[in-house]
Amino acid sequence: MYSVPVDENFNYCEGLKAGLLFFKAQRTGINENDSEFPWQVNSSTLFDTYKNGKLNQNGDGYLSRGYFDAGDYLKITNPLSFSMTTLSWSFLEFKLNIEKCGLLEPYLSALKTGVDWLIAAHPEDNLVYRQCGIESDHSKWERPYEIYINQNGEPFKRDCNKQIIDEINPSSDIVLEMVATMSSTSKVFELIDPDYSNLCKKHALSLWNFGINYQGIPSFVEMYNSTDGFEDEKVWASAWLSFIDPINIDQYKPYYQGKCEILKSINNKWDVVYSWANKLAAACIFIEKNLNENINVSNNIINYWNSNIEKTNDGIFFINEWGNNRYSLGGCLLEAIWNNKNKKSTTLNIHFSEKQVNLILGNNSNHYSYVSQFGFKSSKLPLNIHHRPSHNPINFDKLNPINNQYSIVGALLPGPIDLNDTYYEDRNNYKMNEPALDYNSIFVGVMASLVNQKSSKVELSFPIYDQNNQPYTIVSSSTKLSTTQMLILFLLNWRSLFIKSL
């Protein structure tokens, strides 16, 4: 149909590896020996920490590690938690496929990196740090080592403390999503690392009590706010806790019992979407498949995707103009999970996942892969994505240099913004070209589900080149914060501690 043919022998293990590589690119607060991208050596989030300004034994902030959320330098609990739940759920369903690809270790590493940060963000029973950085940070287009420098070249103190979730300012949507994350991760590590599994379960139970006893949505939320409440998160969290704590299922069951009835007659496309803000369909599929509940809605969900969701001219499921590929693949992941080794499924003949992936990897009218620097052999591969470290800007200028200096491999992009498949490679257009953790968690899950007999084990390394097709080189240490700048930052941090102690 299009000039970019489907690679008939496409190795889905390569796709899974590419998707995991994006998580490596998003890591922050790592030391030089552990870096695989030039900007990570000099990407300092040293002072991302608690409201008391406390640093750990290595002199780093307790929130200094983890992941950047998207093409920015923000760390945000809500989408991160959703992303880790998605990775865990996909692992539990498709572990054998991941093992076949030889990607067990990098997969678990990607999961643990995010969950470790979420554990750090929950230092007390009824306290969660929602994010580091604020919405207005999006107005600055900087290099990674300039996170603590304003556009005048002056150091400033980045804040992790303006949106703290506690008993006074509860945020049930986030807290209950974290319950799902900790519960699913506990199950993943149950046999791999029992101590870590127990730690995650401990946080899951603590967060459950917090989320149920202190319900609400705070008014100060700037982004990733749940406009439709948190009832779906209640169903999602209670289902996962029932799965890992079956002895106490009667405690959790009232929170999901009867909540899936709405999906017996679906009238709204958003009811079947799986995203950081929409979990009801996923929760109901999980309940029907794993908790022995005969709620009889999951086949209806998959049939609705197959027959009722509008498609672009090329054939991509179309939900929304912003980040549509995540929604398309979210439906694919639900289909893949429900049809995976499931005797309850009556939709085993429905296989729309592979078709959607083919369109996303280049078999479309734009001849573009909607995954950065990865796709079918003759597709155009996006380089100039909306991603600050990849661009490596000069003087805070989004247009300088013209091309991104470092390629990001394996980032699922939002893709077309309308039913006419309108897409072009433009760094300024974040609705088409900004990747994010939640997008890639779904992409990774779908790739893991599609591993088949033709798929083969892949090498862990990935050739990474800059725009001149040269291997990555580590940025000179001269680009790090100067001693004076670091001293000023230390004094700013110390001053805030001193004032709070008065």
What key phrases describe this protein's structure?
502 residues; mainly alpha; two-stranded antiparallel ribbon; 40% helix; 2% strand; disordered C terminus
Overview of this protein structure:
- The protein is an all-alpha fold.
- 40% of the residues lie in helices and 2% in strands.
- The protein has helices at 12-25, 38-41, 77-100, 104-120, 172-188, 194-213, 231-244, 249-252, 280-290, 298-308, 324-338, 352-360, 388-391, 430-433, 437-450, 483-501; strands at 75-76, 128-129, 131-132, 164-165.
- A two-stranded antiparallel sheet has the order 1-3. Strands 2-4 form a two-stranded antiparallel ribbon.
- It starts with 11 loop residues before the first helix and ends with a helix.
- 51% of the residues are buried.
List the SSEs and their pairings.
Elements: H1 12-25, H2 38-41, E1 75-76, H3 77-100, H4 104-120, E2 128-129, E3 131-132, E4 164-165, H5 172-188, H6 194-213, H7 231-244, H8 249-252, H9 280-290, H10 298-308, H11 324-338, H12 352-360, H13 388-391, H14 430-433, H15 437-450, H16 483-501
Antiparallel strand pairs: 1-3, 2-4
Helix pairs in contact: 1-15, 3-4, 3-5, 3-15, 4-5, 5-6, 5-7, 6-7, 7-9, 10-11, 11-12, 11-15
Percent range of helical residues: 40-55%
- For this structure, the quaternary state is single chain
Annotation, overall tally of beta strands: 4
Distance between the termini: 71 Å
Major sheet details: 2 strands, antiparallel
The residue-averaged pLDDT reads 88
